[in-house]
Design a protein that fits this description.
Cytochrome C Oxidase, Chain J, Catalase HpII,  Chain A, domain 1, 10 strands, globular
Length: 504
């Protein structure tokens, strides 16, 4: 019985990738019934060669991910702040693609790992694609891009044992007090979200907006889950890793298939240039949040996910995001980490997917593009046809549009130098973590935070164990003395509060 007869579907001719019809798909050519196989059976080589290349390099970070398409709808007018067409008028809708991810694990790791969650949104706007690439946390572990690769190495595998190593993590964090704010978030219940639907997203960095008059403000982006916030406790996350390593992916797909479309309200915080110059801490420091009492959230719109990709690899695995991709009306800021990501993210995508990664459908601007870039691996577009591949030229009329000029930023310094990221005025690493511990978390959340940290730090080993633990305890004490004492007690270290008060 033929395949078409088995499925009751009309027959379609099977071919090679080059279109050649295939005579026999089930058997390899051989010399006689039981003789050796023939090298000339091209289909065998084509199938096996393609199979050997099915896996592209996984992302160095954010390797395990989920994603879906949807729409963003403007609900409030912010045209006085930005001329970006995506915010052009109330009711304006823009197609989006949102990818969630864990950060440190490999592509086969569990969704319930204790880890930040990536929250990357691609807006397909008529002025090009805008990538807002953030996390489910408003801060990060480091604030200078030179530190990023070193931090990520501590979250990956030990070069000798090839296992995750808490000694590496805590050694790095203890030497970088700026990490404390994010460490507390990671080690709290927020480090193990229950699903991708039940977490907030943040642009994290400070960005800029400018309006039709060229007036600029600084902004932070917040996506507030309309499903509410749900987190696993540590033991629940551990059980889920064994029960269903892909639970968050499964939950997202099944919710959308049921018609329960997850939604996030987009809100922004706004700071004027004058406020930024006079503010009490560096507003471009990625390890700090802007107090919402001083810079309240402003409603902007609603993001809804309503379409599961038909093919995971095509859309989710090949989705490529870069903070460099902004659009007219939205710009960058002096945020050091943002400036570093402007270079590193597109470079990572070119390495992983090829120079023409923006031609892949999920990454392509649906409104088209025009440039003089040609050739390269996987060039599957018209490649410019017979048009010139240089500019200026005498044969086309492709011109830059001065209407899209971005207003200039005023820089305070005239000298380039290697400024200490933790110089006086930039070195308060303890106030906000202390507030997070004492005022944001509930009593139960504080208890679980201490338990999670003690459990993790108990894995520190080797001859530097005591040095690393004591150095990290000093950071906890400076954030909140009671917090530090609770962790010390959990680690079996006796410290008298009065001695500590005298030392500090």
């Amino acid at each position: 019985m033929s395949t078409s007869e088995q499925t009751n579907l009309p027959a379609e001719r099977l071919t090679t990738a080059s279109g050649r019809p295939i005579y026999d798909f089930e058997n390899t050519q051989s010399v006689g019934q039981r003789g050796p196989l023939l090298l000339q059976d091209y289909l065998l080589h084509e199938d096996m060669a393609h199979f050997n290349r099915e896996r592209i390099p996984e992302r160095v970070v954010h390797a395990k991910g989920s994603g879906a398409f949807g729409t963003f709808t403007v609900t409030h007018d912010i045209t006085h702040l930005t001329r970006a067409k995506v915010f052009g008028h109330i009711g304006k809708q823009t197609r989006v693609f949102l990818r969630f991810s864990t950060v440190g694990g490999e592509a086969g790791s569990a969704d319930a790992e204790r880890d930040p969650r990536g929250f990357a949104v691609k807006f397909y706007t008529e002025d090009g694609n805008w990538d807002l690439v953030g996390n489910n946390t408003p801060v990060f572990f480091v604030k200078d891009p030179k530190k990023f690769s070193h931090f990520i190495h501590t979250q990956k595998r030990d070069p000798r044992t090839h296992t995750k190593n808490p000694t590496m993590m805590w050694d790095f964090w203890s030497l970088h007090p700026e990490s404390l704010h994010q460490v507390l978030i990671l080690m709290s219940d927020r480090g193990t979200p229950a699903t991708y639907r039940h977490l907030n997203g943040y642009g994290s960095h400070t960005f800029s907006m400018y309006n039709a008059e060229g007036e600029r403000v600084w902004v932070k982006f917040h996506f507030k889950s309309q499903q509410g916030i749900k987190n696993f406790m540590a033991d629940e996350a551990t059980r889920m890793k064994g029960q269903d390593p892909d639970h968050a992916q499964r939950d997202l797909v099944e919710a959308i298939d049921r018609g329960e479309f997850p939604r996030w309200a987009l809100k922004i915080q706004v700071m004027t240039e004058a406020e930024a110059r006079d503010f009490r801490f560096n507003p471009f420091d990625l390890t700090k949040v802007w107090p919402q009492g001083e810079f309240p959230l402003i409603d902007v719109g609603m993001l809804e996910l309503n379409e599961v990709p038909a093919n995971f690899f095509r859309d989710v695995e090949q989705a490529a995001f870069a903070p460099a991709h902004v659009v007219d009306g939205i710009g960058f800021s002096p945020d050091r980490m943002l400036q570093g990501r402007i270079l590193s993210y597109p470079d990572a995508q070119r390495y992983r997917l090829g120079a023409n990664y923006e031609h892949i459908p999920v990454n392509a601007c649906p409104y088209g593009f025009r440039n003089y870039q040609r050739d390269g691996q996987m060039q599957v577009s018209a490649n410019g046809g017979s048009a010139p591949n240089y500019a200026p030229n005498s044969f086309d009329n492709v011109v830059a549009d001065p209407a899209y000029r971005e207003p200039a930023q005023t820089l305070d310094d005239t000298a380039a130098a290697w400024y200490d990221r933790n110089a006086p005025g930039e070195d308060d690493h303890y106030t906000q973590p202390g507030i997070f511990y004492s005022s944001v978390l509930s009593d139960g959340e504080r208890e679980r935070l201490v338990e999670n940290i003690v459990g993790s730090m108990a894995g520190i080993s080797g001859e530097k164990r005591d040095l690393i633990i004591n150095r990290q305890l000093c950071h906890f004490f400076r954030a909140d003395i009671g917090f530090g004492l609770a962790i010390a007690e959990g680690l079996g270290i006796t410290i008298k509060r009065e001695n500590l008060m005298h030392a500090m």
